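Need residues for this backbone.
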């Protein structure tokens, strides 16, 4: 129950504030929060797999207020979006908007007086406590020291009643109650995709393409545009179609995958079918763009947008989004820039293909994949058979490069593919030429979407992205 204790302690002040705004009575609010937390504790194993912040707000709303008042409180007190309010109330977004429109005038008029009949500008609970909605034009006076003590006492009382947990709200690093997307269980065939420390899962038939990017080639310095953000550039091997269409699903990253570059907002910059954009320029929320629904979630330092007419599919994908230091394909977010020998006698069982790029100005993990034991052995055998090549590569790669992680039960060997010199570097200063024999096991597929064709290499057409421009 350790995670529950920390979560409850951190959330209690905000929950008391919300409950008081819903009920208009401090004693009722304290009792409602106590009961809600008690219920959360009893079902924590189940609730913690989803979104506890969303669930506890649903419980409070059911206990404390009708939908109109609840919608108005969630909008005014917590600045919740239509989508978030709909999640809490269990209704559509259009219904949530109606509840907000009906509830705001009522909540504002109720807020002009406290339950005791005193004017609302008398000392009232602040943002750390359980304040009512402030009506337009009225600013609550500064809370007194006595009032702060009352708030703290209410918080401690609630926490003691729900299990005797320590009052650590001010020490906790947990967020104050942001409604997030519940974690989802996806089909086992779905694959992992990551970009710059954010990982998601997508259907296996989705291909790969671009997303909007900042570049001087559009309208002015660092302006936003698209070089292939509306369609897939490369199909997945799992896609049964014989060619790419506008409706081919894909994951997009902010890179050039096409010579056709157009300013943001022009026709052809938004997908018409299922797609995902990493580092999306769209704001958090749900909107219709170009005839398809786009749902955007903030994850880590970037926004992730999923395009689909299916709300279930959008939520299923966004529910897998998380930040990672090393993704599920075995690729570190921090770039691998040196070869590593790995343990002696390494028995290879899988191969991580990690594409890093500096095209955005900072080094990011652009794409990653993981290959089977059989394919890994093909690569290991090809490297063992490759004759040594002259060591012409720089000590540290730049631009775009590929790190190949040969994994075994007792460690990992890292080789580096430097495109500028068409070499694969291994530990000890060994280098092998980048040829069809040393590339066939791991290149192609998404590599053909994101990794530019190496310099001075022959016979590698189709394995890498053709030179653009």
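Answer:
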């Amino acid at each position: 129950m350790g995670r529950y204790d920390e979560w409850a302690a951190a959330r209690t002040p905000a929950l008391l504030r919300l409950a008081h705004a819903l009920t208009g009575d401090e004693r009722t609010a304290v009792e409602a929060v106590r009961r809600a937390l008690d219920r959360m504790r009893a079902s924590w194993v189940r609730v913690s797999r989803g979104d506890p912040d969303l669930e506890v707000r649903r419980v409070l709303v059911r206990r404390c207020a009708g939908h109109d008042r609840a919608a108005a409180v969630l909008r005014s007190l917590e600045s919740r979006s239509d989508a978030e309010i709909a999640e809490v109330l269990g209704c559509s977004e259009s219904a949530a908007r109606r509840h907000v429109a009906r509830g705001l005038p009522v909540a504002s008029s109720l807020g002009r007086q406290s339950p005791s009949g005193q004017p609302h500008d008398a000392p009232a609970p602040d943002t750390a406590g359980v304040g009512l909605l402030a009506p337009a034009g009225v600013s609550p006076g500064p809370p007194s020291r006595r009032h702060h003590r009352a708030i703290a006492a209410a918080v401690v009382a609630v926490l003691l009643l729900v299990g005797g947990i320590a009052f650590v709200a001010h020490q906790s690093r947990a967020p104050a109650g942001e409604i997030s997307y519940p974690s989802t269980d996806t089909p086992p065939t779905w694959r992992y995709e990551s970009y710059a420390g954010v990982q998601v899962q997508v259907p296996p038939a989705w291909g790969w393409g671009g997303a909007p990017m900042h570049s001087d080639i559009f309208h002015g310095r660092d302006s936003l545009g698209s070089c292939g953000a509306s369609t897939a550039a490369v199909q997945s091997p799992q896609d049964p179609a014989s060619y790419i269409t506008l409706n081919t699903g894909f994951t997009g990253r902010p890179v050039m995958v096409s010579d056709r570059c157009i300013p943001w907002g022009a026709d052809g910059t938004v997908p018409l079918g299922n797609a995902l954009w990493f580092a999306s320029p769209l704001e958090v929320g749900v909107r219709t763009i170009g005839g398809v629904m786009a749902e955007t979630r903030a994850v880590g330092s970037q926004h992730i947008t999923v395009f689909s007419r299916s709300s279930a599919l959008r939520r299923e994908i966004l529910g897998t989004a998380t930040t990672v230091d090393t993704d599920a394909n075995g690729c570190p977010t921090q770039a691998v820039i040196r070869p590593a020998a790995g343990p002696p006698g390494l028995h290879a069982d899988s191969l991580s293909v990690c594409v890093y790029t500096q095209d955005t100005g900072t080094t990011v993990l652009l794409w990653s994949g993981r290959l089977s034991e059989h394919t890994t052995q093909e690569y290991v055998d090809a490297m063992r058979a490759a004759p040594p090549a002259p060591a012409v590569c720089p000590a540290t790669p730049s631009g775009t490069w590929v790190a190949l992680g040969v994994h075994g039960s007792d460690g990992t060997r890292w080789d580096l593919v430097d495109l500028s010199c068409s070499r694969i570097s291994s530990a000890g200063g060994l280098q092998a030429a980048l040829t069809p024999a040393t590339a066939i096991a791991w290149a192609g597929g998404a590599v053909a979407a994101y990794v530019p064709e190496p310099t001075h290499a022959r016979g590698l057409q189709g394995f890498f992205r053709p030179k653009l421009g």
